[in-house]
Amino acid sequence: MLDTERVGEPLRHLESRILLAEARRAVPEAFDSQGRLLSPVAGKWVQPPAWFNAVSPIDGSVLAELPLLGAAQVATGVEQAAAEFAPWAARRLDDRARVVAEAVVLLHAHRDLLVRILAWDIGKTLPTASNDVDRCLAGIAWYLEQMDRMIDGRKPLGLVSNIASWNYPFSVLLLNVLVQSLAGNSVIAKIPTQGGGVSLTLAFALLRRAGLPVSLVGGRGRDLSEALVGHPRIAGVAFIGGRANGGEVHRRLRETDKRYALEMEGVNAYAITHFTDWDGLGEQIRKGFDFGKQRCTAYTRWVVEKSLVPKFVRTYVDTVSALRVGNPVLGAHVDFGPLISPSKAEELRALIAEAAKQGTQVLHQGMLAEDAFTARQERGAYLPPVLLFGIPRDSELYLREPFGPVDILVSVDSEEELLREANVSNGALVASVATDDPELARRIAKRLHAFKVGINALRSRGDREESFGGRGGSWAGAFVGGTHLVRAFTDGPHPMEGNWPA
Question: Where is the signal peptide (predicted)?
Answer without folding.
Answer: none
